[in-house]
């Protein structure tokens, strides 16, 4: 993609004055009070945890009330195919670009240009995709050599304060001047957003605090409803006679795959519980994150289930994670060779005492994809609950998004233990190292798989 495309994208604009009939049910004073109350709540609430990755974009939530009717500018409509191409080349929207709504609203302030490209929502997530442009944006450093352009994104949701409790944030540097940001805000498991609502987001540059802009955005999840598979009251997974997990819901949509579950009332160690999925095609879907506001209702998100899956199986297990955090002596000990990062020319058999082995039999790097061919001897299914391979750059920093990782049976092999771990959208010019994923905790209980029929 050449510089002319970036220039076209950064020059496309949607004048905010073309929005009409903007109504608000809150006064400026009420909005300010709500913001202040939320900021106070952030300081004292340990449950409202947010994820920070890649470009160190901070995400917080507050509320307001706005109604807006968009009118698309012709220049933005003409640039839609280019925008799709940009996001697809960076690994986003390949499967669900038809289910997001184009926004095309742009603002310029203090040398920055902020452009909201797309919105997408289901009944558990709201995704906002934007570009931030400023000459030299990604090369400005402070005296410690760190990027000085970090941002805080603050949504206001009408009449639904407390709806969101966490967020996933992905960002990629397009060039020296442009940052692409995809933020997915995640709801409280006990709540559900309406089919349509108005969302206003405020963006601050921190720590410089030299720019602040607001956007009013209409959100609808109607576009995605027909492409969402939801199954309720799935069943129960028994880990022990006294420990049963109720699976209340399974959902998969273009925005993600998740389960909603309830732990036993006497379970106080919820951090010890975890899950993974596998389908009838032999593909394994790993946990991305779990969340709860009340420690009773939980949602666990997974890498997205493929469209051709007819059945999915939910695996639940319990670990001694909390014990290892409180007492390092209870951590699983590994030999030094298990902890070393290897170059992509190294093929090696990694043995886990008393569990099984992961044998790296071949590694293929083609363009921006890297495939690890693995023979996994795992008679107790204790090695498939996590990503088997971890990929790092030469500085030993993790360099991939969980959405760019696939783990599946090698259907071209007659050996039932042969799998492929695939990393997509990697930098073809980067020198990568890999290591086997070693977990410091033990699995102490595991239930039988719970079947979910999708088709």
Automatic annotation (TrEMBL):
Gene3D superfamilies: bacillus anthracis domain. InterPro entries: DUF4179, DUF5643. This is DUF4179 domain-containing protein. Residues 46-132 form the DUF4179 domain. It comes from Clostridium zeae. Keywords: Membrane, Transmembrane, Transmembrane helix. Residues 237-333 form the DUF5643 domain. The chain crosses the membrane at residues 50-68.
